[in-house]
Amino acid sequence: MATITCQTIVDKAELQLHDTGNDRWSAANLFGWLKSGQRQAAILKPDVSVTNASSVLIAGVKQSIPTGGIQLINIPYNMGVSPGATPGAAIQFVDPKTMGQLNPTWTTDTAAAVVQNYMFDPLDPKTFYVYPQQPSSGFGYVLIVYSVTPADPATIAAVITIDDIYETVLLDYVLYRAYSEDAAQSQLALNRSVMHWNMFVESLGRKDLKEKMDTPRP
């Protein structure tokens, strides 16, 4: 549960920017970048903002995560049929290519409400596939763990809506956005912007998105 307020992070950003009087960057802008940082963090590291729900499936093999979701995380077990409130048999993940090699006709095998396996391709993050296929009626429910877009804090005085452990991640994102404002005119601002971006993505485990300090200015 988050306890750190947005104001706390904004105050720290103002200190590092040497702009406690908001002469260059307004508190509103810094707060707006903090909210953007929460969403960007959830895109790069989906488990930043996770929920779970018992969700009804539809006929066939192709399924979707609940509305508002960003990416599937896991489908641990069945939840029975309507009302979908009874935990049941565990569900195992199978790589789609492996399933196709072991059972080329898996998409047309006899339907059943109880799911044995699910398949998922990270390039299509809101879609997953179940085996066996769901029947034309009497659909099964499964527990779906999935990432969601973090809610925007209502005011700067409110707490952040992701875990407190991401405080420095959000601070780096705010500083990255602030220094980016002057990156076209100042090599120092460009270097600081890239530095804070790299710290942001590395803290999220995304070293593949690092940028070099000597990136030429536009």
How would you explain this protein's 3D organization?
This protein is an alpha+beta fold and 218 residues long. The protein folds into 2 domains: 6-47 and 150-209, no CATH class; 50-148, no CATH class. Helix content is 31%, strand content 18%. The chain is built from 5 helices and 7 strands. The protein has helices at 6-16, 27-44, 96-102, 167-180, 187-203; strands at residues 50-56, 60-64, 69-74, 92-93, 117-120, 127-134, 141-148. It has a 4-stranded mixed sheet, with no helix packed on it. Helix 3 (96-102) links the parallel strand 4 and strand 5 (117-120). Helix 2 packs across helix 4 and helix 4 (167-180) packs antiparallel against helix 5. It starts with 5 loop residues before the first helix and ends in a 15-residue tail after the last helix. The model is unreliable at 213-218 (pLDDT under 50).
For the terminal residues, how far apart are their CA atoms?
A: 41 Å
Strand order, biggest sheet? 2-6-5-4
How many domains, as an integer?
A: 2
What global shape is seen?
elongated
Unreliable stretches, pLDDT < 50, 5 or more residues? 213-218
Helix content: 25-40%
Count every helix, treating DSSP H or I runs of 4 or more residues as helices. Answer: 5
- Beta percentage is 15-25%
Order of helices and strands: HHEEEEHEEEHH
The largest sheet is:
4 strands, mixed
What is the arithmetic mean of pLDDT? 93
Give the C-alpha Rg.
22 Å
- Counting helices, strands and paired strands, the structural category is alpha+beta
Number of strands: 7
